[in-house]
């Protein structure tokens, strides 16, 4: 499998979220981003084989197994709980500047 690191991710959005349709943690993470008016690129792993392959490669590289996988400015910040924690500590919005 291709080695993929966060630096390989290309998007015109600063936030990329790998998720799937019936994943409650993905929905929660998407809702927080939407409530904060943060634009993000959603990459549905259940609708795109390419996104699923990317998620798998990134998961291997980062030793992370669950979705969502959330990246901000080419930095892996974790999943839904990490996103909420980062925001509650005031660390999310500064990352977007
Ligand atoms: N702590 C993680 C939990 C995420 C989680 O459990 N996601 C589920 C889908 S909703 C998953 O990937 N399950 C597959 C697995 O555990 O391997 C978060 O907050 O994002």
Automatic annotation (TrEMBL):
One Gene Ontology cellular component annotation held by this UniProt entry: mitochondrion
Pfam families for this protein: Glutaredoxin
Coiled coil: none
Classification via InterPro entries: GLR_AS, Glutaredoxin, Glutaredoxin_subgr, Thioredoxin-like_sf
GO molecular function terms noted in the UniProt entry: protein-disulfide reductase activity
Domain Glutaredoxin: 15-77
Alphabetized UniProt keyword annotations: Disulfide bond, Electron transport, Redox-active center, Transport
Protein name: Glutaredoxin domain-containing protein
Native organism: Paramecium tetraurelia
